[in-house]
Amino acid sequence: MHRPILAVLLATTTAACATTSVMETPPIAQPAQTERMVSPILTSPEAVDTQTFAQPQVARVTHVDLDLALDFVGKSMGGTAVLNVLAQDDADNIVLDSNGLRIDRVTDAAGNALQYTLGETVEGKGAPLTIMMGNARKIRIAYRAAPDADALQWLSPEQTAGGVHPYLFSQGQATLNRTWIPTQDSPGIRQTWQARITAPKPLDVVMSGVRQGEPVDTGDGRRAFTFVMDKPVPPYLIAIAAGDIDFAATGPRTGVWAEPSVLARAAKEVGDTEAMVEAAEALYGPYRWGRYDMIVLPPAFPYGGMENPVMTFLTPTFIAGDRSNNGLVAHELAHSWSGNLVTNAVWGDSWLNEGVTTYFENRIVEEVYGKKRASQEAALMFANIEETLAEVGTHAPGTALSTDGEYELGSAIAYDKGAFFLMTVESIVGRERFDGWLRQWFDNHAFQPATSELFYEDMMANLVRSDAEAKSLSLREWIFEPGLPSNVAAPDPAAFAEVDRAVGIYAKSGTIPAAWAGWSSAERQRFLDNIPKERTAAQLATLDDALGLSGSGNNEELFLWLELALANRYDPAVPQAESFLATVGRAKFVRPLFETLWEQGDWGRPIATSIYATTRGSYHSVTRRGVDRVMDESE
Ligand SMILES: [Zn+2]
Fold first, then answer.
1. CA–CA distance, 565 with 577 (Å, rounded to integer)
2. Is the Cβ–Cβ distance between 592 and 626 less than 8 Å?
3. Distance CA 6, CA 4 (A)
4. For tag attachment on the chain, is the N or C end more exposed, with fewer CB atoms within 10 Å?
């Protein structure tokens, strides 16, 4: 069944893409080679993005051309954005998103001034920038981003590994790019883009677009870099990083950027990337973005990774020396299909990006590292869902995949429940049919936005074969209702049999597992996650002595140790927690550690307050906001 919920506003530029064989009359003209693909927008009620001021049915941005200068002294950037606009014939204004931007001048392509108004600021959403464009369909905005722009983090040399040069990176998801780019900042409004960026020598610049040639010396101690993204992307995927960075290839079409002193370790850790790309293509079709490169950023980066096209951004905290945290790379790579190719139209449907990707990630891990590791990682996800449901209530409204609420990153629901939904469907219809269906989902919705309803209808139309099968799948319950449906394909109970036995023995007799040294990181994490939460100082000391937890080179394990130690008011762990929180800005680690300290009242709150007083300024806005919420909680 097909419901006509797709609407292409002024689709003339894509019309000639239809195959000529089905046309009754020959096509009149092929689009010029330079004409860019215009992605459709969704107009169904559930696809309306409440986080944007844009009115894309009236006038929408199809291309962004940036010319920006990076100012590391003023910690700000400014320049121009030229926007191509597709609009109804009678549309005489366009509404853009903007947050904290200083608008200096708006003109048409010929340089004639255009009137504009900046509306009232709404918390978290910014302000509408309405431009009276008349007949103009190309507008030029001269502007400057604020020094405290939420998307941008300007690092001092001390916050880098090299310690000599400053560093900049951006994080746009979900609605932060409007703090440095005046455009329609909505995941359903795809835009091609290009950029010319100048930066002081000797800094290098990378973006989530293809770099064009070598940088050009501008004669004033700076160099200009140009980038092009010729595929329409949701604007949250426009990203930039600049610093003292070098490149190392990891395969014919993959490679990694990092600070010189980090590069060798980073390249070794992501050495399986080429194999991952091959595995992903074998599963769900061609990688459509050309190269797949990564940049390992300084530890202030607020996330594990961000799937910026052709340039995944990664935290250095995943580097363990043994590739044990490389599920992260598989995850960001998988986003090249789920998220970047087919994108949630609204953030309340973020499971379409994250759940599908988490499933896909697990399939890549299975191909590259084997079934055992994949089933162990799935079991950790399942434990995460169960823990979250136990915490918030098994039928709490926020536990549906499709929500109308705020986009919550790191949620066990969007990521892990989303993945288990697909694992369940796979287990019912069989892997072969499921894979065929998912591949056509990516192919048929490539470079387009999607909603939960569209996903459901596509499954009903292209996967489900009978009423009985539809009943056994419980698709609507999975997508639209809270909790975990009873048909869930639970993880292999044998995945952690040995570890769970060791947990039982340790809980009973305090016997430290002798097998620890040979365990995988997933097994160690399972152990640390499941041992009794209340430990005396003597027990913690014994555990640390035997397992070397405080000296772990794996940050996932170190984090679990610090969490356990702080929850038990273990003084010897405080200095290490302090230095960890002073260098690492990854929200996944930082927020829970502050939370744990905060929960320890008289003992932990003074420690948390004193650490945060010195570290707050070094965190990205994403991390800062999360910790602010923890510390603001009333007694
Ligand atoms: Zn993701």
1. 10
2. no
3. 6
4. C
CA distance 631 to 595: 8
Distance 353 CA to ligand 1 centre (A): 7
The residue from 259, 332, 366, 557 that is catalytic is: 332
The dihedrals phi and psi of 158, each to the nearest 5 degrees, come to -65, -20
Domain 54-244, what architecture?
Answer: Sandwich (2.60)
Task: Please report the DSSP string for 215-269 in residue order.
Answer: -EE-SSSEEEEEEEEEEEE-GGG--EEEES-EEEEEETTEEEEE-HHHHHHHHHH
Q: Which of 113, 118, 225, 112 is nearest to 168 (CA)?
A: 225
The residues, ordered by sequence, that sit 6+ positions from 629 with a Cβ below 8 Å of its Cβ are none
Could you name the CATH architecture of 337-495?
Answer: Orthogonal Bundle (1.10)
User: By the 8 A CB rule, do 70 and 77 touch?
Assistant: yes
CA 46 to ligand 1 center in whole angstroms: 22
What's the pLDDT at 45? 92
Q: Are 628 and 609 in contact (CB under 8 A)?
A: no
The dihedral through the CA atoms of 616, 618, 619, 625 has a sign that is positive
Strand partners, 77: 70
| Beta-carbon contacts of residue 551 (< 8 Å; ≥ 6 apart) | none
Q: How many C-beta neighbours within 10 Å does residue 386 have?
A: 15
Is 578 exposed, middle or buried, given 0-12, 13-18 or 19+ CB atoms closer than 10 A? middle
- For 5, other C-beta atoms within 10 Å of its C-beta total 15
Q: Where in the chain is the domain with CATH 1.10.390.10?
A: 337-495
The CA distance from 118 to 375, in Å, is 52
Tell me how far the alpha carbon of residue 357 lies from the centroid of ligand 1, in angstroms.
6
Q: Is 415 one of the catalytic residues?
A: yes
Catalytic residue among 116, 359, 415, 612: 415
User: What was the pLDDT predicted at 407?
Assistant: 44
Stated pTM of the model: 0.93
**Residue type (1 letter), 79:** G
Q: 589: CA distance to ligand 1 center in Å? A: 16
Cβ neighbours for 579, distance < 8 A, ≥ 6 positions apart: none
**Parts of the chain with a pLDDT under 50:** 1-35, 407, 409, 635
CA separation for the pair 53, 266 (Å, rounded)? 40
CATH for the stretch 533-632? 1.25.40.320
Known catalytic residue: 287?
no
Within 13 Å, how many C-alpha atoms sit on residue 307's CB side?
24
Which regions of the chain carry the CATH code 2.60.40.1730?
54-244
Distance from the alpha carbon of residue 212 to the mean position of ligand 1, in angstroms: 28
pLDDT of residue 35: 45
What integer pLDDT is reported at residue 36 of this predicted model?
A: 55
